[in-house]
């Protein structure tokens, strides 16, 4: 069984909280878990619309604007799923962000344990034959 996790991660700078603290921060927000990739795309694209309402599209040196990025079944490289959107050459934000749809795969634990144990035995036999 598959489900689809929609998250957005923000990476930004902030003042140190104490003397040995770093100034870089990360905050990941779970938007939701969906049973259908199309549903995750619809909600994810609404998240992109929210960001676009707050930050302008990047303008390139030649004066053209970046295109709006959208999650989709076939909008990625070579017609693949577009499951990751970042601010790079898209929105002009004072922080970095990564909006993504991750495929969650559910398996039966007993079957996974059996497969891992069997793989370990196969590897041990392979190494024994090699020696």
What does this structure look like?
It is built from two helices and four strands, in the order E-E-H-E-E-H. With 131 residues, the protein is an alpha+beta fold. The chain has one domain. Strands 2-1-4-3 form a four-stranded antiparallel sheet, covered by helices on one side. The radius of gyration is 21 Å and the shape is extended. 11% of the residues are buried. The model has no long low-confidence stretch (mean pLDDT 91).
Q: Helical percent range?
A: 25-40%
Structural class: alpha+beta
**Averaged pLDDT:** 91
Radius of gyration: 21 Å
* Cα distance spanning the termini: 41 Å
Low-confidence spans? none
- Determine the oligomeric state from the structure: single chain
Query: What's the domain count?
Result: 1
Report the β-strand fraction as a percent range: 25-35%
| Count of strand segments | 4
> DSSP helix count?
2
Largest sheet: 4 strands, antiparallel
Shape: extended
Strand order of the largest sheet: 2-1-4-3
In N-to-C order, the SSE pattern is EEHEEH
What would the keywords be for this entry?
131 residues, alpha+beta, 4 strands
Describe the structure in brief.
This protein has 131 residues and is α+β, with helices and mostly antiparallel strands. Helices cover 31% and strands 27% of the residues. A 4-stranded antiparallel sheet has the order 2-1-4-3, covered by helices on one side.
What is the topology?
Elements: E1 2-13, E2 24-34, H1 37-54, E3 84-86, E4 96-105, H2 109-130
Antiparallel strand pairs: 1-2, 1-4, 3-4
